[in-house]
Structures are given as structure tokens and as C-alpha cells.
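FORM 12-B: Structure-to-Sequence Request
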């Protein structure tokens, strides 16, 4: 296999899998990571978690590097991001001076060890490595990875917040980097070491003032659902740390709804109805309560899905052509559907963001809230059910979707539910390409099957619209000639 062919996409999906799975590039990556450690023998297994091919055929792979913990026989996971570019573009070094400064700060805070260096290049493999907590776009990540800094910041923020005054900060925290996505997003978890009753705290970092908007919206939604929907709540932020653009959240007890879809039963059906009812309540949230929000229309949605799936034609030409045709059909079908004014939407309403606990369902993650067609949220959840039922190879998808719609539908316009099916098809495309585990042998099969499901949803919607138009035409009075 040729490196240039693999990274350019000319070798299709097999080339990407060769880069991620074959011995030579993996051994080169291990050697480089080992050289960054205080002692090369400290490096244990490196577990590939996710990989994505982005614009310009840039391949990014996220690993958990298991590093031996000094003085114990155990290992700790350290997130590593590896970027591979087909042309060895020097743009990957953008902000390198900032990275040097941030790396020095990581050493001062004691969060670099046992790594001596947090970034490196492998020119012969067109690789660029970043080890957590390094990120030029989120310089605050280094500080928030330091348990002492985090302890003081959490204590100060909670003391100043009316919501969190009862949240007693711990004296010592264990810090876990839950999600490390350089230049995109980061989530950290803080577990009290000596006083577990003080409660776990989560921190979500933002690169700008967006964090303030997310904090405001999440707070308003929590109050709205508290007043309008029994049995369904949303996580209420503890505080917003403006100087670091960090939103603090309490731990929410419960497991994601998707975990329960492995064995759907009456309890899951009740959760689905409750989720539908809660979403209907969210769509009634007045714009004046939510505050200023960005607007997301159907044209923007199509552009977003087209961007996210732009790499598919190079890897899987037949599937890429099918996606392009489906998006074209979606735009044509949309013109045939009645529209309604945009309203408050969550825009990431899916099973992973619904946490199930006895007698309660809690909604999380308000990063993508916008003014949009309420059918977007309905369609996204229907598509998410499609995806999970396929992954778990479960029967009963239609019944699960019906239970969700039964919770949402009373009083909902029929036209909204029709548009929801349109969004279901479009969102299933986006979910499929974003969730695809490119390094797995059966990746092509899963992508093909799920895109086929999206096509089936679109076919069914078009059949309904054609039947409706036919019935309407039959009811029209016959033309009088002469």
C-alpha cells in the first residue's frame, strides 16, 4: 500500500484502514509516543477510539495511550490526537509558538508528566501528534487539568452562583479528561477524593463567549421543564466561569437511554413517550425566555450534511453518489411540504443525551440550540432510534418510534410530522458518516445498510406525498367544458 494513495483517498476505504490498522504506521506511532515519555517502557497498549476523514483528506485519529502509573502496577489512559495530511501541509504547525508556550505551562502545572513533550511530528508518515492537555485553541485546558487550579476555580464559581451555593467544593479532586478533541471541544470530570458526598463536577470548555449562551439557555430550559413537564428534567449548570469560558455542571445520575435499547421493553416505551412529551414542551419555550439564538434553516442543514459526508465519494464511490442523490431529493421534497415559523430547538436531541433514572429522565447538552424547524428535533430522534436499533440488531424499531411520537404528537400539526420524516432521512445520513468507525472491517457494510435505510425513509415520505396529492386531485370538481 502506498502512503500517498492511502491519504489522498485514491486507495479508497482500504487505504484508510491500512493507515489505521497495519503494523508499520502503528509501530512508528508507538515509537514516537515512547520517545516523548520519561521512560519508553512506560507506554502500554494504544487503543484507537475514533477516526474521521475531514476536509482536504485530513485523517484524524483519537487514541487512549495507556501509560504506567509510577509506583503502581496499573495504567492510566492519556488521550492522544494524531493528524495525518496527504501533502504534509505545514499549516498543521499553525500556532506552533503558542503550543510551545502552552506546553511550558503544562509542565509548570504538573499536568504534562510523565510526558516530557506533548507534541511531535513524524514527517515520513505525515503525522502530527498532540497529547492531552495540549490545545492552542483552548489554552485554558491546561489550567483546568490541574486539580489545584480546578479546585479553587470551582469553589469561587460556586460561591458566586445562586444555583450552586449549596454545592460544597471538595478539597482534592481526581481529574479525568472525558473528551479530548483538539480545536473542537473538551469535557473534564472532577471526582472528590476525600469527601465523595461533595459531589462530582463536570467542566465543559468553550473557545469563545458561546459558553455564556449555553449556560443561559441550559438554565432557562431547566426552569421551563421544571414548570411544564413532570418526570422530565434537564441538567442545570452550576456556574459559568467567564474568564476561562467554562460551564460547570453537576453529575446527573442515570444511564443513557441508548443503553436500554439493547433490550427494549415496557420501561423503555414509557421513557420514549416521556421524551416525546418533553420535546413537545421544549418546542413551546417562548423565544423571549430562551433569549437570542442563531437561526438554522433547511439550506444550512443540507450544507452541513454535505460537508460532513464530503469524504465518502472518495472512499466509497457508490455510496457517495447515493448520498448526493438523496440530498438532492430532500431539497425537492422539502419544496412540496408546508412550512411553519422556526421555534426553539435542542438540535442534538438523541438517546445519548437522555439519562434514565428511576422515575426520571434528564436531558443534557445544549451546545447546538437554535431557532429552527421543530421537525428537526423529531426527525433527529427518529433517525437516532434507527441507528441504535441497527447497531444492536434489534426488532421493534417502528413500535419504538410510534411510542415516541405518541408522547409528542397530541396537538402537533400533521405537516410537522411529515417534515420530521424528511429530517429523519437527512439526519440518518449525517449520523452514519459521523459515527462510522472507519478502522473496522465491516465499516462499508454498516454505512451502506444505514444509507439504504435513509433512502427507504425518503421513499416512504414521497409515496405519502404522492398519495395525498392524488387524493386531493380526485376531490377537485371536474372542469366544465364549452
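FORM 12-B RESPONSE
SEQUENCE OUT:
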Amino acid at each position: 500500500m502506498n502512503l500517498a494513495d492511502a491519504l489522498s483517498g485514491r486507495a479508497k476505504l482500504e487505504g484508510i484502514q491500512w493507515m489505521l490498522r497495519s503494523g508499520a504506521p502503528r509501530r512508528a506511532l508507538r515509537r514516537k509516543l515512547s520517545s516523548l515519555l520519561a521512560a519508553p517502557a512506560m507506554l502500554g497498549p494504544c487503543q484507537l477510539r475514533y477516526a474521521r476523514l475531514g476536509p482536504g483528506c485530513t485523517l484524524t485519529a483519537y487514541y487512549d495511550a495507556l501509560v504506567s502509573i509510577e509506583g503502581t502496577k496499573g495504567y492510566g489512559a492519556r488521550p492522544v490526537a494524531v493528524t495525518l495530511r496527504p501533502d504534509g501541509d505545514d499549516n498543521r504547525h499553525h500556532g506552533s509558538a503558542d503550543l510551545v508556550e502552552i506546553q511550558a505551562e503544562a509542565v509548570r502545572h504538573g499536568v504534562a508528566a510523565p510526558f516530557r513533550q506533548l507534541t511531535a511530528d513524524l514527517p515520513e508518515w505525515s503525522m502530527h501528534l498532540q497529547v492531552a492537555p495540549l490545545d492552542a485553541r483552548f489554552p485554558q485546558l491546561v489550567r483546568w487539568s490541574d486539580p489545584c487550579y480546578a479546585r479553587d476555580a470551582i469553589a469561587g464559581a460556586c460561591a458566586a452562583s445562586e444555583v450552586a451555593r449549596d454545592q460544597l467544593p471538595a478539597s482534592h479532586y481526581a481529574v479525568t479528561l472525558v473528551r479530548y478533541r483538539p480545536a473542537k471541544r473538551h469535557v473534564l470530570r472532577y471526582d472528590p477524593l476525600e469527601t465523595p458526598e461533595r459531589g462530582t463536577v463536570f467542566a465543559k470548555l468553550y473557545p469563545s463567549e458561546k459558553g455564556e449562551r449555553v449556560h443561559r439557555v441550559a438554565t432557562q430550559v431547566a426552569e421551563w421543564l421544571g414548570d411544564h413537564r413532570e418526570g422530565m428534567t434537564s441538567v442545570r449548570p452550576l456556574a459559568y466561569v467567564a474568564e476561562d469560558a467554562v460551564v460547570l455542571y453537576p453529575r446527573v445520575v442515570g444511564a443513557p437511554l441508548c443503553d436500554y435499547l439493547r433490550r427494549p421493553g415496557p420501561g423503555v416505551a414509557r421513557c420514549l413517550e416521556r421524551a416525546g412529551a418533553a420535546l413537545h414542551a421544549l418546542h413551546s419555550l417562548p423565544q423571549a425566555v430562551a433569549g437570542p439564538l442563531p437561526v438554522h434553516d433547511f439550506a444550512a442543514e443540507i450544507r452541513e450534511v454535505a460537508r460532513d459526508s464530503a469524504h465518502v465519494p472518495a472512499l466509497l464511490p457508490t455510496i457517495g453518489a447515493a448520498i448526493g442523490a438523496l440530498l438532492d431529493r430532500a431539497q425537492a421534497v422539502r419544496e412540496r411540504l408546508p412550512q411553519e415559523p422556526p421555534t426553539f430547538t435542542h438540535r442534538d436531541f438523541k438517546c445519548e443525551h437522555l439519562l434514565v433514572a428511576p422515575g426520571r429522565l434528564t436531558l443534557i447538552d445544549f451546545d447546538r440550540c437554535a431557532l429552527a424547524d421543530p421537525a428537526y428535533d423529531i426527525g433527529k430522534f427518529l433517525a437516532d432510534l434507527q441507528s441504535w436499533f441497527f447497531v444492536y440488531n434489534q426488532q421493534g424499531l417502528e413500535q419504538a418510534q410510534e411510542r415516541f411520537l405518541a408522547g409528542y404528537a397530541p396537538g402537533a400539526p400533521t405537516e410537522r410530522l411529515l417534515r420530521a420524516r424528511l429530517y429523519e432521512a437527512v439526519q440518518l445520513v449525517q449520523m452514519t458518516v459521523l459515527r462510522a468507525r472507519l478502522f473496522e472491517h465491516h465499516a462499508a457494510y454498516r454505512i451502506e445498510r444505514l444509507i439504504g435505510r435513509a433512502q427507504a425513509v425518503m421513499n416512504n415520505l414521497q409515496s405519502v406525498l404522492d398519495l395525498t396529492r392524488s387524493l386531493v386531485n380526485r376531490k377537485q370538481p371536474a372542469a366544465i367544458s364549452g
